[in-house]
């Protein structure tokens, strides 16, 4: 072992490390398979457990980023957050099983099971309990507290489309019209009454 500046606390934490530098592994089997990955932080049993070459990952919670072998720059907070993903990059997952299976890049999921079944999607934002749980695409926005396919707020960044599945109150007492995206939007007493 020729590595430097590592901290390991727990049975088999950083056990396989050879040249990976500046890692912190706390918990049984935390970063157990890491060989050359550097600047990773794993706290919790089996967090970053299969990581070998991934760099600059942060895994907080049992099994968080567990299956990651080569993904870089991920942040996973919560039990099994990004837990089954093998090569994700630049993702942020906060909540149990959030982005559980995602191998894509640049996703943000906040909430238990948010984006859980998205496998290769990229640039998604899922906010709320089970928000976007079954969304398989990229460039989507889900804000809701269920796994519904029609969330309270849904967006598509690729087409610059935002859908509100409910009533949108603009401001108490606001009345008037404005043009947005070539459409005339009329607001009466803070409620959008027409889009033509």
List the helices and strands and how they pair.
Blueprint: E1 7-9, E2 24-26, E3 41-43, E4 58-60, E5 75-77, E6 92-94, E7 108-110, E8 125-127, E9 140-143, E10 153-156, E11 161-164, E12 176-180, E13 183-188, E14 191-195
Parallel strand pairs: 1-2, 2-3, 3-4, 4-5, 5-6, 6-7, 7-8, 8-9
Antiparallel strand pairs: 9-10, 10-11, 12-13, 13-14
Q: Key features?
A:
single chain; 196 residues; mainly beta; eleven-stranded mixed sheet; three-stranded antiparallel sheet; 14 strands; elongated
The secondary-structure class comes to: mainly beta
Query: For the CA atoms, what is the radius of gyration?
Result: 21 Å
Q: Average pLDDT value?
A: 95
Q: Order of strands across the widest beta sheet?
A: 1-2-3-4-5-6-7-8-9-10-11
Summarize the helix and strand pattern as letters.
EEEEEEEEEEEEEE
What does the oligomeric state look like here?
Answer: single chain
Describe the structure.
Strands 1-2-3-4-5-6-7-8-9-10-11 form an 11-stranded mixed β-sheet, with no helix packed on it. The protein is 0% helix and 27% strand. The relative contact order is 0.07. It has strands at 7-9, 24-26, 41-43, 58-60, 75-77, 92-94, 108-110, 125-127, 140-143, 153-156, 161-164, 176-180, 183-188, 191-195. The mean pLDDT is 95. The protein is elongated and about 70 Å long. The N and C termini lie far apart (68 Å). The protein has 196 residues and is an all-beta fold.
């Amino acid at each position: 072992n020729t590595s430097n500046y590592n901290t390991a606390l727990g049975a088999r934490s950083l056990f396989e490390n050879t040249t990976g530098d500046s890692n912190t592994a706390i918990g049984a089997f935390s970063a157990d398979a890491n060989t050359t990955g550097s600047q990773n932080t794993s706290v919790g049993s089996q967090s970053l457990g299969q990581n070998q070459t991934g760099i600059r990952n942060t895994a907080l919670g049992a099994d968080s980023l567990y299956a990651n072998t080569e993904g870089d720059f991920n942040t996973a907070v919560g039990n099994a957050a990004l837990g089954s993903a093998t090569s994700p990059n630049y993702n942020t997952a906060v909540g149990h099983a959030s982005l559980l299976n995602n191998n894509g890049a640049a996703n943000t999921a906040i909430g238990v099971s948010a984006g859980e079944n998205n496998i290769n999607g990229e640039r998604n934002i899922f906010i709320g309990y089970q928000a976007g749980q079954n969304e398989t695409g990229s460039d989507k926005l889900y804000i809701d507290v269920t796994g519904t396919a029609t969330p309270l707020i849904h967006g598509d960044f690729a087409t610059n489309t935002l859908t509100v599945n409910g009533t949108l109150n603009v401001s108490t007492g606001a009345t008037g019209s404005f043009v947005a995206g070539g459409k005339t939007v009329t607001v009466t007493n803070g409620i959008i009454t027409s889009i033509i």
